[in-house]
Design goal:
Layout: E1 2-5, E2 8-11, H1 22-26, E3 29-37, E4 40-42, H2 44-57, H3 66-79, E5 85-92, E6 110-117, H4 123-128, E7 130-136, H5 151-162, E8 167-172, E9 175-179, E10 183-188, E11 191-194, H6 204-215, E12 219-222, H7 227-231, E13 235-240, E14 244-251, E15 254-255, H8 263-276, E16 287-289
Parallel strand pairs: 7-8, 7-14, 11-12
Antiparallel strand pairs: 1-2, 1-6, 3-4, 3-5, 4-16, 5-6, 8-9, 10-11, 10-13, 13-14, 14-15
The chain binds 4'-deoxy-4'-aminopyridoxal-5'-phosphate.
Amino acid sequence: MTAYLNGKFMPIAEAKISPLDRGFLFADGAYEVIPVYGRYGFRQEEHMRRFQVSLDGIRLPNPHTPDEWRALIKQIIANAPFEDQQLYIQVTRGADVKRDAAFPVNVPQTVFMFTAPMAKPSAEMRANGVACITAPDIRWGRCDLKTVALLANSQARQVSVDAGCTETIMIRDGYLTEGSASNVFIVKNGTLYTPDLTSCLEGITRATVLTLADELGLKVIEKRITRDEVYCADEAFFTGTAAEVTPIRELDRIEIGCGSRGPITEKLQNAFFDIVNGRNPKYAHWLTKV
Ligand code: PMP
């Protein structure tokens, strides 16, 4: 794995931070994960804009200009010995000389990046869908930000691991919010539904799917969705940088629709892969060449 820490590129094993780093002590940091297909960053500019929103949301100054980030990203992608990558970027409020919850003064932020081979869903998962399970959404109120405070997401994710499922769908006050690391969609009577942005992260893959749905002439409604509406959906799928577009074949052991990938999910998947694999010239600008 190729890493970058505070101004230097290095093998990941050589990257070391202080135990007083506020990312370690207080989860005081923000992050992004950018998918890289064939060394092209997919919607890199949108990811970096969302990163700025996350930093602003926790009052953490951005240590780099957009051009500096572009140069760093270009270099780490180019250095990696693999083509399809998942590029992780994290900034924390740095390491003070004491443990104090209040923001430190004159402490440089910690800037960390590493890139790893992209962990794609298998062809079988893409074609036949996966089993998911629900769990209560116990996260804090700022689920619109990508902060490193991911304890509740990790707890939720483990629920699906323990149950032999692929993703955990979180429910708050009886309504679906999102997956532990994904956004969720359902299809009912030809209409695509997804929770509105009051209860979930503005996923870049979610935004891509909404654009593609529009192109395919699908009716889309962003609204609150109950757990029963998911059980009774014709189709369901979740989206994310790592998940891409993954069909849900069952939820809480209840079969969704035909119990496999539905036709609208398949159309959206095909349109998604056409774009990320550079087969749709209309969206070539979403792929940043290194
Ligand atoms: N929701 C959560 C909680 C996530 O962690 C992710 C993954 N970043 C997503 C949604 C999907 O966002 P994206 O499509 O930008 O990866």
